[in-house]
Amino acid sequence: MKTILIVEDEQAIAEMLAAILEETDYQVVIAGNGQEAWAKLETTRPDLILSDIMMPIMDGRTLCKKLQAHPTYRSIPRVLMSAAYDSVSPSDGNPAAFLKKPFALQELLATVSGIIGEGEEAQG
Known about the structure:
single chain, alpha/beta, 4 helices
């Protein structure tokens, strides 16, 4: 089963994303900001990080740049999402994709499966 680390400071959004992804057979870990996500990497090796951009303590762009600069974590694909921004660039830590909030359920699932494959495929 593939693991997705959701980094989102709005608990309701994080829980909604987790529910959708778990229904599609992904394992989900939630962090409330970039610093919390960084700490979770000590015990969890996600297949994908799905991160909001605007968060307290450490925002999504800073997290993405920090991951890109780290030799152990740079290979983890990152998807940034935001309602306040229209896009991201490679200078934002080389994210694999960007989702503009609000996004459709199918857009989320297509983006995730396009990057890491379907959740149930990792089981076989």
